[in-house]
């Protein structure tokens, strides 16, 4: 669509006012390939910056103390799975109403507009990835980490930042692509359920459901069974309301991947 038919959306959801909205259907004629390109281009600079930083820090750490650095690499991966879950559940889905104090005004300005527009417009490439939003937090974490030896906290933070990059590319792929990998089919069903009318308060894990299972935000067992059925059985059993119009029905979510941009 051209710019007149589909004007630039600037973002309007405030979670303290609107909550997490139900998704809108994609506009007729929406160019999903263009939206995918927009999402990719927004995240390329952060990908390059965080990956280069992680490679440099981990290389230095391994050179100074190989075993300690390797231990903190593993710790960083494990820590990231919990950080990812907690940030998604309590920050991205959290409500930060404005208040009279400096702290509440800052939290409202920084966090209240975040993520709501992604749920409202899950097909919009402007709202898929974090872009430059995380850089201030990354800089603070990185600088603070150097109070410790390089093979320890700096390596830990570098790996967390690298895991963030990986998670964001997984998230992008879930919204715009189909792949045949077993893991991808699982995480795609898991995340598209989160975008459904019934999933806004569950399935907060973006790269796995490990912490959802531990912290009681797992997809309900009945829906979980439907999500993981084969395409034919899912088509017979799926309720029409289980996945909203902004995401594929269960049989589409379970269908063989096609390896290309697809309507989500």
Features:
single chain; 264 residues; mainly alpha; 2 domains; 12 helices; globular
Order of helices and strands: HHHHHHHHHHHH
Low-confidence stretches: 1-9, 234-260
Average pLDDT score: 85
Number of domains: 2
Helix content: 55-70%
The class by helix and strand makeup works out as mainly alpha
Rg estimate, integer Å: 20 Å
Distance between the termini: 17 Å
Count of DSSP E strands? 0
Q: How much of the sequence is in beta strands?
A: under 5%
Number of helical segments with 4 or more residues? 12
Please identify the oligomeric state. Answer: single chain
Shape: globular
- What does the largest sheet look like? none
Helix-strand blueprint:
Blueprint: H1 15-18, H2 32-64, H3 66-92, H4 102-111, H5 116-120, H6 135-145, H7 153-176, H8 182-194, H9 210-214, H10 221-227, H11 231-237, H12 250-253
Helix pairs in contact: 2-3, 2-7, 3-7, 6-7, 7-8
Describe the protein's architecture and organization.
This protein folds into two domains: 32-176, no CATH class; 180-264, no CATH class. It has twelve helices and no strands. The protein has helices at 15-18, 32-64, 66-92, 102-111, 116-120, 135-145, 153-176, 182-194, 210-214, 221-227, 231-237, 250-253. Helix 2 packs antiparallel against helix 3 (66-92), helix 2 (32-64) packs antiparallel against helix 7 and helix 3 crosses helix 7. The radius of gyration is 20 Å and the shape is globular.
């Amino acid at each position: 669509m051209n710019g007149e038919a589909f004007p630039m959306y600037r973002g309007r959801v405030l979670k303290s006012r609107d909550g997490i909205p139900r998704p809108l259907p994609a506009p007729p004629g929406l160019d999903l390939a263009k939206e995918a390109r927009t999402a990719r281009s927004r995240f390329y600079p952060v990908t390059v910056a965080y990956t280069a930083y992680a490679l440099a820090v981990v290389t230095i750490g391994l050179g100074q103390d190989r075993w300690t650095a390797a231990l903190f690499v593993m710790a960083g991966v494990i820590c990231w799975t919990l950080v990812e879950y907690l940030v998604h559940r309590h920050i991205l889905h959290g409500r930060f109403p404005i208040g009279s104090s400096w702290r509440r005004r800052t939290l409202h300005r920084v966090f209240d507009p975040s993520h709501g527009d992604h749920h409202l417009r899950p097909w919009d490439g402007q709202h898929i990835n974090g872009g430059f939003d995380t850089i201030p937090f990354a800089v603070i974490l990185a600088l603070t980490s150097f109070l410790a030896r390089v093979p320890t906290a700096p390596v830990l933070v570098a790996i967390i930042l690298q895991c963030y990059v990986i998670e964001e590319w997984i998230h992008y792929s879930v919204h715009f692509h189909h792949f045949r990998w077993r893991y991808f089919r699982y995480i795609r069903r898991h995340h598209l359920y989160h975008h459904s009318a019934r999933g806004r308060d569950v399935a907060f894990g973006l790269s796995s459901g490990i912490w959802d299972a531990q912290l009681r935000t797992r997809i309900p067992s009945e829906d979980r069974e439907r999500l993981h059925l084969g395409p034919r059985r899912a088509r017979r059993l799926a309720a029409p309301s289980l996945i909203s119009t902004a995401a594929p029905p269960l049989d589409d979510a379970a269908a063989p991947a096609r390896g290309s941009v697809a309507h989500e």
